From TrEMBL:
Binding site for substrate: 9-11, 37-41, 137, 244
Gene name as annotated: rbsK
Cofactor note: Requires a divalent cation, most likely magnesium in vivo, as an electrophilic catalyst to aid phosphoryl group transfer. It is the chelate of the metal and the nucleotide that is the actual substrate.
Keywords, ordered alphabetically: ATP-binding, Carbohydrate metabolism, Cytoplasm, Kinase, Magnesium, Metal-binding, Nucleotide-binding, Potassium, Transferase
Name of this chain's protein: Ribokinase
Compartments in which it is found: Cytoplasm
Catalytic EC class: transferase
Species in which this protein is naturally found: Georgenia deserti
Record note on quaternary structure: Homodimer.
Binding site for K(+): 238, 240, 274, 277, 279
E.C. numbers: 2.7.1.15
Catalytic center residues: 244
Pathway: Carbohydrate metabolism; D-ribose degradation; D-ribose 5-phosphate from beta-D-ribopyranose: step 2/2
Length: 296
């Protein structure tokens, strides 16, 4: 099984002709309200795209419509939501402006996500999991507790996004680190090619996956050759959630005992297919769809 500890946000997305400057008001169009947040997106992907038994640990606003939207999306994908706490704060909200060339600017109001904790009753669930998956849109102390729970035998996968400095006590527990290129530079504290960054990060953690958008991903593990896994060529229309689909499907494949390089291959397929559809959770492919691609 997979336990995802992370954020849940409602995404308010609006198309804009260009991004506004400070002090400026512009008109956008086509407002959408869709379920998002890195944690919830990855939980949906692990369940729908990965076919895993998934539990989500997070927080949404009590009695608010946005919280209902998120819980419904998680449950529809088959994710267990009983450890989701109901906060007096509003459900997290992401304000997203998208230009025609697909460039996003995003402002996140964390709200209930700032109260995500691992309750005593849930701690046991983490210990029993095959994989614990976390990101950095929740308090770092909660990420630390999730990381420590791995000592019961789970594999701890950390998607260090959005990037922020990682305390040593978290890094020490990471089994697999997943980062995109900017995050890789931030965590490594240096510049360099994806290969150089993966090698530098591999000194800190036993396994590293650096995602490269349309170019797929680089996988580095200690005492093994670095490998490059290509992504299939697709016509990308909206890359929102591609990185999250990648992480969720990767975690599910690892929980099923798949080796890292094969898990990354399936994760690349999931990321690429997600980029061909708009939205985050709504764009995640099913496990059957991914199987079909594998056979093709
Ligand atoms: P993030 O969205 O977190 O910055 P990436 O852009 O690296 O992460 O995308 C994550 C994964 O999604 C990639 O490793 C790749 O598998 C897939 N992906 C993203 N964009 C594309 C694309 N344009 N074509 C094919 N695959 C893509």
């Amino acid at each position: 099984s997979v336990v995802v500890v992370g954020s849940a946000n409602v995404d308010l997305v609006v198309d804009v002709p260009r991004h506004p400057r400070g002090g400026e008001t512009i008109l956008g169009e086509n407002l959408r309200r869709t379920p998002g947040g890195k944690g919830a997106n990855q939980a949906v992907a692990a369940a729908r795209g990965g076919g895993a038994d998934v539990t989500f640990v997070g927080a949404v606003g009590r009695d608010d419509d946005d919280g209902e939207l998120l819980l419904a999306s998680l449950r529809q994908a088959g994710v267990r939501t009983d450890p989701v706490s109901l906060s007096e704060l509003a459900t997290g909200t992401a304000l997203i402006a998208v230009t025609a060339d697909g460039e996003n600017t995003i402002i996140v109001a964390p709200g209930a996500n700032s109260e995500v904790t691992i309750e005593d009753g849930t701690a046991g669930r983490l210990g029993e999991a095959d994989v614990i998956l976390a990101q950095l849109e929740i308090p770092l102390e909660t990420v630390s507790s999730a990381a420590r729970a791995r000592r019961e035998g789970a594999t701890f996968v950390l998607n260090a996004a959005p990037s922020r400095p990682l305390p040593a006590d978290v890094l020490e527990e990471v089994d697999v680190l997943v980062v995109n290129e900017p995050e890789a530079r931030e965590v490594a504290g240096r510049e360099g090619s994806p290969d150089e960054l993966a090698a530098a990060l591999n000194e800190l953690v036993p396994a590293v996956v650096v995602t490269l958008g349309a170019d797929g991903a680089v996988v580095a593990r200690r005492r093994a050759d670095r490998t490059h896994v290509p992504a299939p060529k697709v016509r990308a229309v909206d890359t929102t959630g591609a990185g999250d689909a990648f992480c969720g499907v990767l975690a599910a494949a690892l929980a099923a005992g798949t080796d890292l390089a094969d898990a990354v291959h399936r994760a690349c397929l999931a990321g690429a297919l997600t980029a061909t559809r708009s939205g985050a959770q709504t764009a995640v492919p099913s496990a059957e769809e991914l199987d079909g691609y594998h056979r093709a």
